[in-house]
Prior knowledge:
Low-confidence stretches: 1-13, 21-26, 180-184
Strand content: 5-15%
CATH class: Alpha Beta
Number of helices: 6
Distance between the termini: 26 Å
CATH architecture: 3-Layer(aba) Sandwich
Number of domains: 1
CATH topology: Rossmann fold
Structural class: alpha/beta
Shape: globular
Helix content: 25-40%
Strand order of the largest sheet: 3-2-1-4-5
CATH superfamily: HAD superfamily/HAD-like
Order of helices and strands: HEHEHHEHEEH
Amino acid sequence: MPSHWPEGVGDSAPPTSDKIALNFRLNRLERANTPIVFLDFDGVLHPFGDRHTRAFCDLPRLEAVIRDAPRAWIVITSTQREHQTLLQLRTLFSPDVAERVVNVTPVLPMDSAADLAYSRHREILAYLQSCPDSGPWLAADDDATLYPAGLPNLLLCEDGFGTHEAAQLASWLAANSRITTEVPEERGN
């Protein structure tokens, strides 16, 4: 994940244990205050039925919302992550938004059709578990069956990313982009 806190916190002296500890705490603070948008493509960045004829027609609307929340990161949940590298996926976005596409969720094994239920939610939870102290998150997806019923972290896009969905995401980002000065507590304390 990107970090805005360079080693040594602004000086050229070799890092001391105190500087390393400070950097670690500052990086945790940054992650804890960074909202994450988990993003599906088909059904979100274009209506599902238009995926071949109007691919990514709603991407400019999503990018406009993301630009208004400069601290937000994007993590790709789309099945396209299974066939393309992160670099290839980033090329779909405008350069300023592409630099905020920080990762993809893991692909978890599916042993039966029953594993499909809530599968995207499990992938997001696996990603979050691998990134302790992650900030608040919201999933933009068109398939509610991939998440538990009533999940407040789901922005359901029923026909692409329209003005209604843009307003919902903008509102969520505004509420979750506040910078706090509290450093998350160390585990075990």
